[in-house]
TrEMBL record, chain A:
Lineage: Eukaryota, Metazoa, Ecdysozoa, Arthropoda, Hexapoda
The organism of origin for this protein: Acanthoscelides obtectus
Gene Ontology CC, one term: mitochondrial small ribosomal subunit
PANTHER family assigned: MITOCHONDRIAL 28S RIBOSOMAL PROTEIN S22, SMALL RIBOSOMAL SUBUNIT PROTEIN MS22
Protein name from the UniProt record: 28S ribosomal protein S22, mitochondrial
InterPro entries: Ribosomal_mS22
Alphabetized Pfam families for the sequence: MRP-S22
UniProt superkingdom: Eukaryota
GO molecular function: structural constituent of ribosome
TrEMBL record, chain B:
Alphabetically ordered keywords of this record: Mitochondrion, Ribonucleoprotein, Ribosomal protein
Family the entry assigns: Belongs to the universal ribosomal protein uS5 family.
Name the record gives this protein: Small ribosomal subunit protein uS5m
Signal peptide positions (record): none
Subunit structure: Component of the mitochondrial ribosome small subunit (28S) which comprises a 12S rRNA and about 30 distinct proteins.
GO biological process, one term: translation
Species the sequence originates in: Acanthoscelides obtectus
Cell compartments where the protein resides: Mitochondrion
InterPro entries on file: Ribosomal_Su5_D2-typ_SF, Ribosomal_uS5, Ribosomal_uS5_C, Ribosomal_uS5_N, Ribosomal_uS5_N_CS, Ribosomal_uS5m_N, Ribsml_uS5_D2-typ_fold_subgr
Domain of life of the organism encoding this protein: Eukaryota
Pfam families, alphabetized: Ribosomal_S5 (PF00333), Ribosomal_S5_C (PF03719), Ribosomal_uS5m_N (PF21251)
Entry annotated with the keyword DNA-binding: no
């Protein structure tokens, strides 16, 4: 049985519209980039191969995933010490790996939702019965927040489905989620957001956005897209490595054909394998074929065919080749010196 | 004639210092009145008394000292040499109560081309006050106030105070980065064959470089300063190395005992601080331990605490040694790391599960305290929790339980405290006291 509940009479639904976000649409010269339904990212994103590639590019370091964090206002705790045999240690490490896998689940990439304007019934005889809107909520146990039936009776007698903003608010009021507030906090707006970006607190922004918004929320996509662009421009990739957001960042960059900076960073830091994975990811998502004759051919081909930063990338690649060549020579020399060749 | 001689003798006896101004005044009339001797003989004044017979030094001694016999009986506890005042201080010959100009004494004889004449100037009322003030200041010397950081455990006492690094030996290297702390400074007596009770000062000092080196020593001397110096320098020559865990705490929990002083020491995470006896805290400061909890059971004699604690520190095993001894991995698990098994130390060869005997102690606390258990008394609830009024109080407080959070949220959202009616009725706002500058402007 569906239980309905009436929420306060004077819900200022119209105030809740995203009016206070419109000002910041062109923040820091970054424009909001949303995933839309015409080019649905879901089939590519949820593909197993692509998920695997995104995981590889995340470069998981367990010590960074499980780094020491401050836990709010709790007191510092004593660590627990244990004696372990080899097997017990391996088991514990395996469990930690599993935990890391679930912690590093990439937030889903889905198209932005569309505004709701569904009228359920028009009852002009109820006109003037109430001076304010009435919101009815289905609070049955076990219903998903996204499927919950929330309807609004307008003062003119129209019964329509609640808008997304109202739905979010009502859901948060009846079924509060930890860490989420009814109104989006100030950190996602204006100078506060700019300041966070300037301080390169990318992980904090993205974590908070994950808690506050649903992935199909236009606000979520606005915040994440601006953050991703800021990271790309300021070369802050290392800040997101070993976090759940690196996959989403890479997917965003590949989706919008903007991987040159990431590729350059990977080549400069001598991660040729990851650079290859990135190109593979690009070819899979963008359905472009690259020659695969030797180790670096795919990268070379990409630079020739699709890159916008040809000069810099070619130079970096050349430097990388020379360095690996020198490394090989040194290794060979060491081997001959040890009499192993 | 004989009378005249007497008079001159008495005049000679008068102390030169205080009455000398009177002499010429008195002498003149004698010369004039020589024939009329009868007047003088009738006014035989005795100008000698206790105070002008003895020099100031002896007078002061009389009131600021007690005979040896008297001292033994406990007399003269409130007298001391510091009470002696030099009454001549601030006084200049030729300048006195009556402000008279004496050419050749308090002023030059010739000023310009004129001869200066003796004359009386108006009295200076400040002079007497200044003299009294100067005398009051004497004998009331106060030590400079110590800053709270320099202070020891209690008041202006030495124990707990830092006295700097030990002196370099010969022309050798300096004790760079070292600091010493006084743990004890007290007077001790012993009996000598020919002197009797002999008083000396005993000092116990601990020194360290805050990186794991520590030494302690005792020194005796006739003065506190020499005792401290001896103890400090001796402690610099008895340095021991102590293992630290991540440069901030002890390697593991341990139990240690010296005499009847028992100490349970436990390792603590960074940021915990030093929660222990003040002597242990001082030692930790010089060793370089920043986080630790210690509970002292039994005697709290500072010497014993120091010895027990340093003994325990020396006996610590490093994590590598523990792992090698147990032939098992030593793993740290803590909530801040999301329960990640952090391997602290591994043995060269690890035992398997079958190789571990069933009765072996594997619990870390039990292993560290060697089977001893720290007595943790449960704190009884305070008396007022049983009162009816406390229940009432709790009920009244219930409605305020989230007030602080609401306050912060309102301040974050609106920048002020306001009710939900503030939109409709703008006057429904918390009163804001005007800023000081604005108030001043309005007043102007």
């Amino acid at each position: 049985m569906a239980a309905f509940r009436l929420v306060s009479k004077c819900l200022k639904a119209e105030n809740l519209s995203s009016a206070h976000f419109t000002i910041f649409k062109r923040l820091l010269n970054y424009s909001t980039v949303e995933y839309d339904e015409q080019r649905d990212p879901r089939p590519s994103f949820f593909n197993k191969d692509i998920q695997n590639l995104l995981r590889t590019l995340t470069r998981v370091d367990l010590h960074k995933v499980f780094r020491r964090r401050k836990l709010g206002d709790e007191k510092v705790r004593d660590p627990e010490y244990k004696f372990m045999t080899d097997e017990e240690l391996q088991e514990a490490l395996q469990k930690a790996q599993q935990k890391a896998n679930s912690l590093l689940q990439i937030p889903p990439v889905v198209p932005a939702r569309k505004p709701i304007s569904k009228i359920l019934s028009l009852d002009p005889e109820l006109q003037g019965l109430e001076t304010s809107k009435m919101v009815f909520t289905d609070i049955t146990f076990g219903v998903k927040d996204s499927d919950r039936l929330i309807v609004v009776r307008q003062p003119d007698g129209t019964l329509c489905e609640a808008e997304w903003e109202v739905k979010n608010r009502i859901n948060q009021i009846y079924f509060p989620q930890k860490g989420r507030s009814v109104k989006p906090p100030k950190m996602f707006q204006g100078t506060d957001f700019e300041d966070l970006l300037k301080r390169q607190e990318y992980e904090f922004i993205l974590d908070c956005a994950c808690i506050q918004f649903e992935p199909n929320d236009p606000d979520y996509q606005r915040i994440t897209s601006i953050t991703y662009q800021h990271i790309n421009d300021n070369n802050g990739f290392d800040k997101l490595r070993s976090t759940r957001h690196f996959g989403a960042l890479t997917f965003f960059l590949v989706w919008h054909k903007n991987i040159d900076n990431l590729l350059l960073e990977l080549i400069e830091t001598c991660y040729a394998d990851e650079a290859n994975s990135l190109i593979e990811l690009y070819s899979k998502i963008k359905k472009v074929e690259f020659e695969k004759t030797n180790d670096l051919s795919m990268i070379e081909h990409y630079i020739k065919k699709c890159s916008n930063k040809k000069g810099a990338l070619e130079l970096a690649l050349q430097a990388y080749k020379e360095m690996s060549h020198q490394k090989q020579n040194i290794e060979k020399g060491i081997k001959t010196a040890h009499g192993m060749s | 004639m004989a009378q005249l001689l007497n008079i001159t003798k008495t005049l000679q006896k008068l102390t030169v210092s205080s009455r000398c101004r009177l002499v010429p005044v008195l002498v003149k009339p004698f010369e004039e009145d020589l024939p009329r001797t009868s007047i003088i003989s009738t006014t035989a004044t005795r100008n000698t008394n206790f105070f002008n017979k003895l020099p100031a030094q002896d007078l002061w001694k009389g009131i600021t000292s007690v005979s040896n016999a008297g001292k033994k009986r406990g007399r003269g506890k409130n007298v001391s040499k510091s009470k002696i005042k030099d009454l001549n201080r601030g006084q200049v010959i030729g300048i006195g109560k009556a402000n008279i100009l004496w050419p050749g004494l308090s002023s030059p004889i010739i000023r310009g081309k004129e001869l200066v004449e003796q004359q009386k100037l108006p009295e200076d009322p400040e002079r007497e006050k200044k003299l009294i003030q100067l005398r009051d200041q004497m004998g009331t010397f106060k030590h400079a106030k110590l800053s709270p950081i320099e202070r020891g455990w209690s008041g202006a006492k030495m124990p707990g105070r830092s006295i700097g690094p030990p002196d370099p030996i010969g022309e050798g290297e300096k004790f760079a980065g070292f600091d010493s702390v006084v743990l004890e400074l007290k007077t001790v007596y012993n009996m000598k064959g020919n002197f009797g009770r002999k008083r000396r000062i005993k000092a116990v000092v601990v020194t360290g470089n805050k990186k794991g080196l520590v030494g302690f020593a005792m020194g005796r001397g006739l003065e506190a300063r020499t005792a401290l110096r001896k103890a400090k320098n001796r402690s610099g020559q008895k340095l021991m190395h102590i293992k630290l865990f991540r440069n901030h705490t002890v390697c593991h929990d341990f139990f240690t005992q010296f005499g009847s002083t028992k100490i349970y020491v436990s390792q603590k995470p960074e940021g915990f601080g030093l929660v222990c006896h003040r002597a242990i805290k001082s030692i930790c400061d010089v060793v370089g331990i920043k986080d630790l909890h210690a509970k002292v059971e039994g005697s709290t004699n500072v010497n014993h605490i120091m010895k027990a604690f340093i003994l325990g520190l020396i006996r610590q095993k490093s994590p590598e040694e523990v792992a090698e001894q147990k032939r098992l991995h030593l793993v740290e698990i803590c909530k801040e790391n999301n329960y990640f098994p952090n391997v602290i130390a591994s043995p060269k060869e690890c035992r398997t599960h079958e190789e571990i005997p069933k009765d072996e102690v594997l619990d870390w606390k039990q292993y560290c305290f060697d089977g001893k258990v720290v007595l943790r008394k449960k704190k009884p609830p305070p008396f007022y929790t049983r009162l009816k009024s406390y229940e009432v109080y709790l009920k009244k407080q219930e409605k305020l339980r989230n007030q602080d959070k609401v306050r912060i949220n309102l301040l974050a959202e609106y920048g002020e405290l306001r009710t939900f009616l503030a939109d409709k009725y703008p006057e429904c706002r918390a009163y804001k006291p005007p800023k000081k500058e604005e108030a001043n402007d309005e007043a102007a």
